Amino acid sequence: MCKTRCSVTCSNEGIEVQTNSDDEGDDGQFLEVETETANEEYPLITPFPMITVTDLPPELQGTVTEKVWDLTGKEVGLIKGVEPVKVQVKPNAVFPQIPQYHMAQDVLIQVSQIIADFVKQGVLKEVLSSPCNSPIMGLKKPCGKVQIVQDLRQINEIVVKCCPIVPNPAVIMFQVPCDAEWFTVVDPSQAFFSVPLHEDSQFLFSFKFLDKVYSWCRIPQGFSESPSIFNQILKKDLESLELPFSSTLVQYIDDLLIASRTKDNCRYEQ
């Protein structure tokens, strides 16, 4: 468009394309473009249906222990046999002390309940004080529920970063066999919170909420190193896994894809 010096005008009457000329006095010419109007039979944009899963599929009920599934959306696991993650801080780093952001009353109520649940499960702990404070936010999901997000941008600036070891999605998808027709997707619930954080590093991720100070006991979301750390831990944990029917397991950070050739193989190996 730039090389031909064309301009496009959109209006209720349709779309016009004007071709400009280099000749003085020549205003170029207009070209009419046929357009298709959206209607019920041929919509231009098809909305993606919202899917809500409240119960396990019938074919999975009774085949896997219920302890595996997060049926409430609030449960957090703990990876066993993993050394707590210790975070190294740059020399002469200045610890951030950022005031807490304002929250709407309805969001504050939900955030308060989430914090209480995390404290009960050992994901968070209350502390007397901390040299760091990174504010939290309550982000509303489309379903109306709230998710806690912490602004750790300044913490990410003062920690020593490791070489990121996160796979390229475009590359790992080549692992999927061309004859695979059945797939299982596994998405661990709140995966980063299943990795313990070393006690000496917990103060870095503190925040204040309702006149109390809390610190994470697990690696938090928003920490720049969390994806790489979890990716390596899960990858190592899956090294000994063998799928008896030769299905292919593809891992991307905390997402797992099992690609199988038949439905029976897929159901058995999931």
From TrEMBL:
EC code: 3.1.26.4
InterPro entries found in the cross-reference section: DNA/RNA_pol_sf (IPR043502), Rev_trsase/Diguanyl_cyclase (IPR043128), RT_dom (IPR000477), Viral_Replic_Matur_Polypro (IPR051320)
UniProt enzyme class: hydrolase
Domain Reverse transcriptase intervals: 120-270
GO molecular function, one term: RNA-DNA hybrid ribonuclease activity
Record protein name field: ribonuclease H
SUPFAM superfamilies for the chain: DNA/RNA polymerases (SSF56672)
Family: Belongs to the beta type-B retroviral polymerase family. HERV class-II K(HML-2) pol subfamily.
